[in-house]
Every structure is written in C-alpha cells, then in structure tokens.
C-alpha cells in the first residue's frame, strides 16, 4: 500500500520537515540520528542538512528510493535502510536522537516499535515522537480513523520510564490547508532526553 502511494505522486508528504520536528530539534547539538518509518525522509534529510549523521528506515522500497534521490538532489549524505519496524532493532543506545513521526500501528506492534526506539537513545540523547493524537478522531482533521493506532502524550510518557527527562509532552494544533479551507489537526508531540 505504501509503495503504491509513494509511486503515485511526486511527493506524498511536505518537502521540508514536519513543523514540530523543526521547532523541537533545531537547537539540538548534531550527532547520530535515526528516523524510523521515514517515508520519503523529509525529516531525516532536514537533519542531515543541519549536520546530523542521519539514517532513514522504512519498509517501503519506493519511499526509500525517493529519499535517496531527494538526498542526492539536496547534496546531503543519508544512510537508508529498507526494513520492517516490527522486526528491525535499531542499535541500543546507538543514537543521539531517535524520531518516530506519524507511525500508526496496532497496539502490540506500536509498543514493540516504541520500546525499541526508546532503547536506541544514547545517554544524553533525545527521543522525539510526533503523531496523530487520539483526540484528533473527534476534534481534528485527517489522520487514521481507528482509535487503536493513534497516540497520546500520556501513553508515551509512561513508556519512557525513569531515566528520561520529559521536555515536552502535549497535544498540539497543526494548521492544515484543505480544499474545503483551513483545518486544525491534533498531534501528539513528545520530546524527552535520556539522563546521563
Ligand atoms: C504517515 S507516513 C510518515 C512518513 C514520515 N515519518 C514522515 O513524517 O514524513 C508512515 C510511514 O511509515 C512507514 N511504515 C508503516 N509501517 C511500517 C513498518 N512496519 N515498518 C517500516 N515502515 C513502516 C510507511 O511506509 C510510511 O512511510
């Protein structure tokens, strides 16, 4: 389904990074980062442009192929991996920033993927998640229409455990232009730093 979607249009997501990713990560010291479920890698490519050693992982070979082409066009180095997040294990404590952006999986898979993503954060590094919030179903525009796959700040903070300092955990408004006029989407936004 994702391969077909990525093959069908020039660019499925925005050309630049997600607004919350840019806002929360722009002042962080560059290091190693991994974007899990990167798609066309709009976020990972932006990190690479900011001087990060960026890796983009997605199970859509078409999405990753586009990511490589865009990275070439932008003249940045990007490491890409075609892999299924439900079995892929990012290097534990291997990254200064781990990003999950709009990855919506059923509960069991989501827990597995989130736990591995959290475990991949190095001491002093950051975990960043942006996704369609559970409240978006009733109060926001777009996104998946199944409550099971949506995220919430509380769920995320509970998964982080004691060795993380939560910097931001909120439901945030994202303004979107649609054919019917401006709309607001409700996003879960969580940034946390592993202590040590
Ligand atoms: C809504 S898109 C978000 C893409 C990107 N994170 C962004 O914000 O632009 C969801 C992405 O997750 C990927 N994805 C979904 N399930 C996956 C899985 N089990 N393993 C790897 N990638 C997955 C899809 O291929 C798609 O690229």
Brief summary of the model shown:
The protein has helices spanning 2-8, 19-25, 42-49, 61-74, 107-119, 136-139, 153-160; strands at 32-36, 53-58, 79-82, 95-101, 121-132, 164-178, 181-194. It is of the alpha/beta class.
| Tally of helical runs | 7
Please provide the ordered H/E string of secondary-structure elements: HHEHEHEEHEHHEE
Which CATH architecture is right?
A: 3-Layer(aba) Sandwich
Uncertain parts: none
- Quickly give the structural class: alpha/beta
- Largest sheet: spatial strand order: 3-2-1-4-5-7-6
CATH class: Alpha Beta
How would you portray this structure in words?
Helices cover about 30% and strands about 30% of the residues. It is of the alpha/beta class and about 200 residues long. It has one domain (about 1-5, about 15-195): Vaccinia Virus protein VP39 (Rossmann fold, 3-Layer(aba) Sandwich). The radius of gyration is 16 Å and the shape is globular. The mean pLDDT is about 95. Bound molecules: S-adenosylmethionine. S-adenosylmethionine (SAM) binds near residues 2, 58, 60 and 85.
Outline the secondary-structure elements.
Layout: H1 2-8, H2 19-25, E1 32-36, H3 42-49, E2 53-58, H4 61-74, E3 79-82, E4 95-101, H5 107-119, E5 121-132, H6 136-139, H7 153-160, E6 164-178, E7 181-194
Parallel strand pairs: 1-2, 1-4, 2-3, 4-5
Antiparallel strand pairs: 5-7, 6-7
Helix pairs in contact: 1-4
């Amino acid at each position: 389904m994702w391969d077909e979607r990525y093959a069908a249009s020039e660019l499925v997501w925005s050309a630049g990074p997600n607004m919350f990713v840019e806002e929360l990560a722009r002042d962080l010291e560059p290091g190693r980062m991994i974007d899990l479920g990167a798609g066309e890698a709009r976020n990972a490519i932006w990190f690479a442009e900011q001087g990060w050693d960026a890796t983009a992982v997605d199970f859509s070979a078409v999405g990753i192929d586009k990511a490589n082409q865009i990275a070439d066009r932008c003249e940045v180095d990007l490491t890409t991996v075609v892999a299924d997040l439900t079995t892929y294990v990012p290097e534990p404590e291997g990254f200064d920033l781990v990003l999950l952006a709009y990855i919506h999986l059923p509960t069991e898979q989501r827990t597995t993927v989130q736990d591995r993503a959290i475990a991949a954060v190095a001491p002093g590094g950051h975990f960043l998640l942006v996704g369609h919030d559970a409240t978006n179903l009733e109060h926001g525009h777009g996104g998946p229409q199944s409550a099971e796959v949506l995220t919430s700040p509380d769920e995320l903070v509970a998964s982080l455990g004691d060795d993380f300092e939560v910097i931001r955990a909120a439901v945030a408004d994202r303004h979107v232009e649609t054919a019917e006029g401006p709309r607001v989407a409700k996003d879960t936004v969580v940034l946390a730093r592993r202590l040590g």
